[in-house]
């Protein structure tokens, strides 16, 4: 094996060792770049060994040497397999990095949606009002603001405005803490199966919010009770 091939192998080994060291020290950004370049270096090594084998074969023919050239063929075969391994490694690395990037992008999007405060746009407010304004029987509405939910107050104020503009009597806010573990917006009237509650839930769902009908609140009978829980 030539000196150049040995230098390439030493560089590849050094890069692998540095990559292992970086991984243990949580420097994953460095590892990603090393993996991206390692496949190309292996391909280069395979091509170099194949080139040396071809050069040896040419020298044999030029010198009319008819002896055993199995070493040259073996070197050529080794170079070919290293080349194939390098190409495969490159393909797998690029594919793996692409999958990793896609997974991270999806995860970031999910976190963004999860952490984004609930709010109604102007178009959504108009759509909401246009539907619930048609409800014939409009019981009073009370909104529960869970103090443990960061976006409950602002979202509740928006909902209160929608109800008031749509002809519902708004009886005010009730604040407190609720660690029930439920998620979403719950709408209901105690002791009643009110179609208004179902219509409100239906509109919220159409606007992309998590919402369910509920039994309402015993302490506030004859009122539609809107409970804003975490997303």
What is the strand and helix layout of this fold?
Layout (H helix, E strand, L loop, with lengths): L2 H22 L3 H35 L7 H46 L6 H11 L8 E6 L5 H14 L4 E7 L8 E5 L5 H12 L4 E3 L10 E5 L3
Parallel strand pairs: 1-2, 1-5, 3-4
Antiparallel strand pairs: 3-5
Apparent shape? rod-shaped
- Secondary structure class reads alpha/beta
The stretches of 5 or more residues where confidence is low (pLDDT under 50) are: none
Backbone CA Rg: 35 Å
Strand element count: 5
Q: How many domains comprise the coordinates?
A: 2
β content, as a range? 5-15%
Q: Helices and strands, in N-to-C order?
A: HHHHEHEEHEE
Could you characterize what this model shows?
With 231 residues, this protein is of the alpha/beta class. Strands 2-1-5-3-4 form a 5-stranded mixed sheet, covered by helices on one side. The mean pLDDT is 77. It is built from 6 helices and 5 strands; from the N terminus they run H-H-H-H-E-H-E-E-H-E-E.
Name the features.
alpha/beta, Alpha-Beta Plaits, 5-stranded mixed β-sheet, 231 residues, 6 helices, 2 domains
